[in-house]
């Protein structure tokens, strides 16, 4: 065996546990070796008095001091000038070798002169039966892989011999090899130091031999290696990636090196997507930190390559047998997920066998029967409905910051709802407006589908799931929105169950958190008035997750990030130019449709779940049947839902019951507050916020709570085998009574279209005449001044760009403005001059030429809806027929059309600052959506992990002999 062994021990007091106690234990273990250590050098990093006191207990050791932040590789370098003997033993304050460790390590060097490094078996100090490290290898891409780690030591790996590398802690290396190799690479940041040393030893003609009989216990909090513990996870990830990049560039051939170096940052972009798909976003900052450092620290790469060049004597090909093959790498890196964290098994979904598919099919048949005309329509009109842009590019252009399609030269951020409209229209790129027709036709089955899946988080009983899906599709606010033509409310109602489905388990997985974040963006885009309610629920979710399942807190926090990113541009603009109440205005076409008023009776109807003064439409139906108009009994029909819902906190899943009631209360509170807010206006008429959006949230919470009561049963109601049948019968009867009552409420609105009382009608491809629409289809900068006579002395004016007014082209910035802009005043003045027979001598500007100078090529005078506006419409027509520079096209579908024959100036471009801001906003939104999508995409690992937890949330801990 080697004549002399020099032990280098490094201690640094920056661990979570007192370093002095570990140092004493290590020094004691060194003194108890059966093969004595001839010389010990202790390198103290920092002026820690406890460490110095522990070292003073052993006066025979040599002490070298170093700064407190000195890394292991640099500390070992301080002892190079004092080395003697034939072997160097590398230790740290938390390494406790067994009594025979040095003897068997030295014997391995003595028996095989070709062995340059002898490595021990590392085990946990607090659990010696568990292996920490027993050899290392790497993949072809340079990723380090432990050959045996975190396994119970049953001697299964004790036959290991030659390895590519080993953990640096406790290795015994020949002194001449240590000198020739140049020690450890300090650029590795504490990771893979032993692996890199082993690779260089092999290239120098030596071997790395595992000696399992040499056992060293490690605490994992010393200066050598990477520390264990949740608080050190980010550092471990950074160090591992930094070491991998450093080794990849150090080992690369000279021809490949420039390309690999240039690909460091692009690779980080790719790995960002990979990390998001793998549901490990915590690795993003370490990835970019390591990549930037590797890209900048060219000097460390040059030094590492120089060390290899000086000591290398064999080709790289000789290392191939010690590397992992792709199959071996997949086997070792793709481990199984952790076991189940809950004691309840995950039940089958049973969408088909449980009747869910049949319920959706029945809803589809009912929808076709109730809305047969939609099968032939190409576009919808009425209420808040308008066509969509005819091309996908125009749809997405309307969703971007810049010039708005309405108004003269209004530059503003688009409503997030425009992006939702663009997504829907892109489903049928050849005819986007028909996509909205299809959505209306499929609304009922989609609502049943969403409601059914949302109920899978509450119950696994098929009858209750079907009841929940059907009741959700028949909810009064949803049917009212379908009948009145409110696309924002319809889309919101379809999104809410999926949002609750994903958000309920967002704390469990990144897939659910990513999906919930996107659904939250879309839901808030449809109903900004729900933002306060969602904010309360988000805070509640963060607090509960932090208390009950801290590991999922980051996932829950993420769910709100995309919504904030999308909201910032509009919020910033509205706070600067309008009242804060403008932030809750409904997007889309501003329409003052019928809904309850801000009165005691209105609040009562809202509290019972009805958004209109005629609950469920029964008043109109009874009037048509000649049976009067008394509807006092209609709110009574929702009593079964209310009774079952209020009992939810008294079930065995009381926490879930309380949360669902909070959801319902927030929804009702939002609805009551909404009817008192008039944030928008159109043609001089105020438009109140639609209360049905809040009621949709309330129905989600109320139905969920009611079905929870039916599923879980009250506390103390656990039945024996005899009473179980009675309970099932009562559960089924309660669900059927609840659904039957809601179905009665829904009859008038389900038949509204067949009875001809629905606001939804077939729409034209454009709100402008076909003559203008054809020109606007080819040139989206075609401007049309639309003048609407509103009374005997009032005009409403709008400038429409392109082929039509569209849903996606609407903007709450325009509909909620409280002050006239310069453009508004200019258009108002020019419109007044255009239709006025009196000539104002003080203004020499010809209104026709002024309109042409603003890019407006057409003027449309709409037919007055009010008889009192007829004289004004006739006089305006007469005046404009006599205007020079205008040719009368004639009567068209929407009114009377004129074409301006003056030279029309092209619409002014917004300019570089606006373009740059538009691209910046779009880039930020694309990045956050891409991140959420990548998180939402399930992987094999995330699916395995999901299957280990129950689908239902809030299940109590399984009790002995208990019956669910």
UniProtKB/TrEMBL annotation:
Q: Which domain of life is it from?
A: Bacteria
UniProt keyword annotation of Ligase present = no
> What Gene3D superfamilies does the entry give?
Spore Coat Polysaccharide Biosynthesis Protein SpsA, Chain A
Query: What protein is this chain from?
Result: Glycosyl transferase
- Tagged with keyword Transmembrane: yes
| Key words of the record | Membrane, Transferase, Transmembrane, Transmembrane helix
> Which spans are transmembrane here?
249-268, 356-377, 435-455, 488-506, 518-544, 556-575, 630-648, 655-677, 697-718, 730-750, 920-940
Q: Origin organism of this chain?
A: Microbacterium mangrovi
MF terms per GO, please? transferase activity
């Amino acid at each position: 065996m080697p004549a002399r062994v020099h032990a280098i021990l490094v201690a640094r007091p920056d661990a979570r546990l007192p370093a002095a106690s570990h140092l004493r234990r290590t020094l004691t273990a060194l003194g108890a070796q059966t093969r004595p250590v001839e010389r010990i050098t202790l390198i103290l990093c920092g002026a820690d008095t406890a460490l110095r006191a522990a070292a003073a207990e052993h006066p025979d050791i040599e002490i070298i001091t170093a700064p407190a932040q000195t890394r292991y590789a640099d500390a070992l370098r301080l002892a190079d000038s004092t080395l003697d003997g034939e072997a160097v033993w590398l230790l740290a304050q938390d390494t406790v070798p067994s009594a025979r460790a040095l003897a068997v390590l030295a014997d391995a060097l003595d028996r095989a002169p070709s062995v340059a490094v002898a490595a021990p078996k590392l085990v946990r100090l607090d659990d010696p039966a568990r292996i920490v490290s027993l050899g290392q290898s790497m993949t072809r891409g340079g990723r380090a892989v432990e050959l045996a780690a975190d396994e119970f030591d049953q001697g299964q790996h004790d036959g290991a011999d030659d390895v590519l590398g080993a953990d640096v802690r406790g290795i015994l290396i020949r002194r001449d090899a240590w000198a020739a190799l140049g020690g450890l690479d300090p650029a590795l940041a504490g990771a893979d130091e032993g692996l890199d040393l082993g690779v260089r030893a092999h290239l120098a003609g030596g071997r790395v031999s595992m000696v399992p009989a040499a056992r060293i216990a490690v605490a994992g909090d010393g200066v050598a290696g990477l520390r264990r513990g949740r608080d050190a996870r980010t550092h471990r990830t950074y160090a591992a990636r930094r070491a991998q990049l450093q080794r990849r560039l150090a080992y690369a051939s000279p021809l490949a090196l420039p390309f690999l170096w240039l690909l460091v940052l692009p690779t980080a972009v790719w790995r960002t997507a990979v990390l998001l798909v793998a549901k490990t976003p915590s690795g993003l900052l370490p990835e970019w930190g390591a990549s930037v450092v590797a890209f900048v620290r060219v000097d460390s790469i040059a030094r590492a390559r120089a060390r290899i060049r000086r000591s290398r004597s064999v080709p790289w090909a000789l290392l191939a047998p010690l590397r992992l093959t792709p199959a071996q790498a997949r086997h070792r890196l793709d481990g199984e997920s952790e076991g189940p964290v809950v004691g309840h098994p995950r039940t089958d979904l049973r969408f088909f066998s449980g009747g869910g598919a049949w319920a959706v099919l029945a809803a589809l048949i009912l929808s076709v029967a109730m809305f047969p005309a939609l099968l032939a329509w190409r576009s919808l009109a009425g209420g808040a409905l308008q066509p969509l842009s005819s091309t996908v590019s125009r749809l997405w252009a309307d969703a971007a910051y810049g010039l708005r399609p309405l108004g003269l030269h209004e530059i503003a951020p688009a409503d997030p709802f425009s992006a939702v409209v663009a997504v829907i229209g892109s489903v049928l790129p050849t005819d986007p407006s028909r996509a909205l027709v299809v959505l209306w036709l499929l609304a009922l089955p989609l609502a049943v589908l969403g409601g059914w899946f949302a109920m899978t988080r509450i119950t696994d009983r098929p009858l209750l799931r079907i009841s929940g899906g059907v009741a959700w599709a028949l909810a009064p606010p949803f049917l009212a929105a379908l009948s009145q033509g409110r696309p924002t409310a319809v889309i919101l109602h379809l999104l809410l169950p999926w949002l609750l489905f994903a958000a309920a388990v967002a704390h469990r997985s990144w897939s659910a958190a990513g999906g919930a974040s996107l659904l939250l963006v879309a839901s808030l885009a449809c109903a900004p008035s729900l933002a306060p309610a969602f904010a309360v629920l988000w805070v509640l979710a963060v607090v509960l997750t932090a208390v009950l399942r801290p590991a999922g807190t980051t996932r829950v926090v993420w769910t709100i990030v995309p919504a904030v990113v999308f909201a910032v541009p509009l919020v910033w603009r509205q706070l600067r130019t309008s009242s804060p109440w403008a932030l809750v205005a409904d997007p889309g076409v501003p329409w003052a449709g019928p809904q309850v008023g801000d009165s005691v009776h209105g609040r009562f109807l809202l509290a019972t779940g009805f958004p209109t003064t005629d609950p469920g439409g029964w008043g109109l139906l009874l009037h048509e049947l000649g049976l009067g108009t008394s509807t006092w009994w209609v709110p009574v029909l929702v009593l079964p839902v209310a009774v079952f819902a209020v009992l939810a906190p008294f079930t065995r899943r009381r926490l879930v019951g309380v949360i669902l009631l909070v959801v319902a209360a927030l929804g009702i509170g939002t609805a009551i507050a909404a009817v008192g807010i008039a944030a928008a206006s159109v043609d001089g008429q105020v438009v109140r916020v639609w209360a049905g959006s809040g009621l949709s949230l309330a129905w989600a919470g109320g139905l969920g709570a009611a079905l929870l009561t039916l599923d879980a049963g009250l506390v103390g109601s656990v039945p024996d085998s005899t009473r179980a049948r009675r309970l099932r019968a009562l559960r089924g009867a309660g669900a059927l009574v609840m659904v039957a009552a809601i179905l009665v409420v829904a009859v008038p609105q389900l038949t509204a279209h067949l009875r001809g009382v629905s606001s939804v009608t077939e729409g034209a491809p454009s709100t402008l005449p076909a003559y203008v629409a054809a020109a606007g289809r080819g040139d989206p900068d075609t401007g049309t001044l639309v003048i609407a006579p509103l009374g005997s002395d009032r005009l409403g004016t709008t400038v429409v760009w392109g082929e039509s007014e569209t849903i996606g082209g609407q903007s709450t910035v325009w509909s909620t403005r409280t002050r006239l802009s310069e453009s508004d005043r200019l258009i108002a003045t020019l419109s007044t001059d255009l239709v006025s027979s009196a000539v104002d001598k003080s203004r020499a500007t010809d209104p026709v030429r002024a309109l042409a100078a603003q890019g407006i090529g057409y003027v449309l005078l709409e037919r007055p809806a009010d008889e009192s506006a007829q004289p004004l419409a006739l006089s305006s027509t007469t005046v404009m027929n006599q205007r020079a520079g205008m040719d009368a096209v004639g009567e068209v579908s929407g009114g009377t059309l004129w074409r301006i024959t003056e030279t029309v100036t092209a619409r002014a471009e917004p300019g570089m600052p606006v373009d740059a801001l538009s691209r910046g906003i779009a880039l930020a939104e694309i990045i956050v959506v891409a991140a959420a999508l990548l998180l939402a995409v399930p992987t094999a690992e995330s699916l395995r992990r999901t299957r280990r937890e129950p689908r239902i949330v809030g299940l109590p801990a399984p009790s002995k002999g208990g019956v669910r």
